[in-house]
Design brief:
The chain is mostly beta strands and about 600 residues long. Strands 5-12-7-10-9 form a five-stranded antiparallel sheet, with no helix packed on it.
Length: about 600
């Protein structure tokens, strides 16, 4: 593979000599041979040889020619045709397409002093179909040579076929890259380069930048605003340029070899970065941020007795005592440097802080509140509940119980200039709430109690006349009949509490009831038109009675009531009864105490049909 083109013009007799030398050298890869003729001379000449490019993006129309396997024909024999590839923008190979014929005059070698070998004639006669040409050539698209040589255009293949489609795809992709005149930016820049110098403006946002690229087909030059060329520092294989922040520079890229287009990449990054100024505490290590895009990074401390720099897999600062040190980051072999100021302070030694914490009650029922008392704290107090769904705590330490459960209240006294922060904890139990409703009703035998369900309760305890009368083992049981409370005309009081694993709820309000034996209806007679007389047994422990009658046996709606205010009245006539209807009548005894009426249960009902 030849490394650079040969631009010598070779005429006449020197052509065979050059060909002989090339033949003896073995295989040769060519991208093109340009044929031209000097003015007034009918002999063609060769402007030079060009190697096949290593970069696939640059294209190549040359083929490897193995001259060692070919024999030199006699001068009088027809030489095989050679296609000549284009110079300039490389065209993709067109598969299975023969080049058009090109009439080329024979080289007259009679007047030349030939070396001791036969000279082949350059004949443009067509070869037989069975004979393969040693080299397929393409007619270059270039300015007409000095000698009139008829040229024919090669038909272009369809865009969707073969290499041409690849070339179009490359062109489309290149359209998205940074083109001439577009400003470069920090990071990765895809570029399109041509034979002429390609110029891109660039204004850095920091000082000292490192440029790197892929490929070596071009050279790079950077000029400042005055046109002065910057000299790079070589770090490794690539240059580094020290640029000033906010100044516009011109980045020029010149292709080294002759080619139409180069697709490449130019990276621009800040060469050296370092962290901001920091404050550290003596005895506490700090991770330090510093980075070099190229070269070897070195860090030094202006005061190693204040701050020591340790470089291992990471960079650490070891603050040793109070003071100030400048940490300098630099790149070996350059004057590029950045500094960071580290201020070290001694750790503050504070006294321990303590306080006492008390709750008005460590167990409260849901729906109730309690308060915390803190004494002796130095810093500002803050409160937090571990289970806010069970109990919350305010900024002032007031606890609001919400449902059955347990929560931990944490009280923290903040750090001060002289005292360390300290926290204390207190457990608060939330018990079931008292039942919201508690009722009693006299029965034929005993007193029936009922109450509202309490959330979180696993059972209930009932107290009669301040003594435990019954323990209910289920939280879903909401009624109980006290059959022992069966003495006529006696007052009974009841209270109830809800039970849970954490404890019992507060006692309910006291519920009072007078036990009365219900009277019995002895007779109901239709004694007059639309009237009936009711008689019943009396209860001397009562203060009166209540008579209820209805056409419905269930007494659900439409009840009519007659109140009797004497314990000794044991009969009453009911009027305005619908004729032909059956009426049902029942009676209960009542006792009024301090304006509150207490009644027995209803007697069994008796029926009467009104016929009059």
């Amino acid at each position: 593979m030849m490394k650079e083109g040969i631009s010598k013009k070779i005429k006449g007799i020197w052509l065979p000599v050059l060909l002989s030398a090339i033949i003896l050298s073995g295989n040769l890869s060519l991208t093109g041979i340009r044929v031209s003729a000097a003015e007034g001379d009918s002999s063609p000449s060769f402007d030079g040889f060009y190697e096949v490019l290593d970069d696939p993006a640059a294209g190549s129309s040359g083929q490897d020619l193995d001259f060692t396997e070919k024999t030199i024909p006699d001068q009088k024999e027809d030489a095989p045709e050679q296609d000549m590839p284009e110079l300039g923008a490389p065209e993709p190979d067109v598969p299975e397409q023969a080049a058009p014929e090109l009439d080329t005059p024979q080289l007259d070698m009679a007047d030349q002093a030939a070396p001791e070998q036969d000279m082949p004639e350059l004949d443009t006669a067509e070869q037989d179909d069975s004979e393969q040409a040693a080299v397929e050539t393409a007619v270059p698209e270039m300015a007409a040579p000095e000698q009139d040589i008829p040229l024919q255009e090669i038909p272009e293949p369809a865009a969707e076929e073969g290499p041409m489609a690849v070339e179009q795809t490359t062109a489309e992709a290149g359209a998205a890259a940074v083109e001439t005149g577009d400003a470069l930016h920090e990071g990765h820049n895809d570029l399109i380069l041509t034979n002429s110098t390609t110029v891109f403006p660039f204004t850095p946002q920091e000082t000292d930048w490192y440029l790197f690229w892929t490929g070596d087909e071009y050279s790079l030059t950077i000029k400042d605003k005055d046109g002065a060329v910057l000299s790079p520092l070589i770090l490794g294989e690539h240059p580094c340029y020290s640029l000033s922040e906010g100044v516009e520079y011109t980045v020029s890229l010149q292709t080294v070899m002759e080619m139409d287009t180069v697709y490449t990449s130019l990276g621009i990054v800040e060469l050296l970065t370092i962290g901001p100024d920091i404050q550290a505490v003596a005895g506490y290590r700090e991770v330090f941020n510093a980075y070099a895009a190229a070269g070897i990074l070195y860090l030094t401390s202006s005061a190693p007795d204040v701050v020591e720099v340790v470089q291992n897999t990471s960079i650490e600062l070891h603050p040793l005592k109070a003071g100030t040190a400048v940490i300098s980051a630099c790149i070996e072999g350059t004057n590029i440097r950045k500094d960071c100021r580290v201020t070290v302070v001694e750790p503050v030694v504070r006294k321990p802080q303590t306080f006492t914490l008390k709750a008005a009650s460590s167990a409260i029922a849901a729906g109730y509140t309690t308060s915390l008392t803190v004494t002796g704290a130095k810093g500002k107090l803050s409160y937090q509940s571990s289970e806010p769904s069970i109990a919350t705590v305010s900024k002032t330490g007031k606890i609001n119980a919400r449902k059955v459960g347990r929560t931990v209240i944490t009280v923290t006294a903040a750090q001060t200039a002289d005292y360390n922060a300290v926290s204390k904890r207190l457990t608060i139990k939330v018990l079931p709430a008292a039942t919201a409703s508690f009722k009693a009703a006299g029965q034929a035998k005993g007193i029936r109690l009922s109450w509202a369900k309490v959330e979180g309760a696993t059972g209930y305890v009932i107290y009669r006349n301040n003594k435990k009368a019954k323990i209910i083992q289920s939280g879903s049981t909401l009624t109980w009949t006290d059959t022992a409370a069966n003495t006529n005309g006696t007052k009974y009081t009841y209270r109830i509490v809800a039970r849970a694993l954490l404890g019992e709820s507060p006692l309910s309000k006291t519920l009072a009831i007078w036990r009365l034996t219900p009277p019995a209806v002895t007779a109901v007679r239709n004694t007059a038109s639309m009237k009936a007389t009711v008689t019943y047994t009396g209860n001397t422990r009562a203060t009166g009675y209540q008579i209820q009658y209805n056409t419905l046996k269930t007494f659900k709606t439409g009840n009519r009531v007659v109140n009797i205010n004497s314990a000794f009245t044991t009969s009453r006539t009911l009027s305005k009864l619908t004729k032909g209807k059956t009426w049902y009548v029942r009676v209960r005894a009542c006792k009024t105490v301090n304006g509150v009426r207490y009644c027995s249960s209803w007697s069994p009902a008796k029926a009467v049909k009104i016929l009059k």
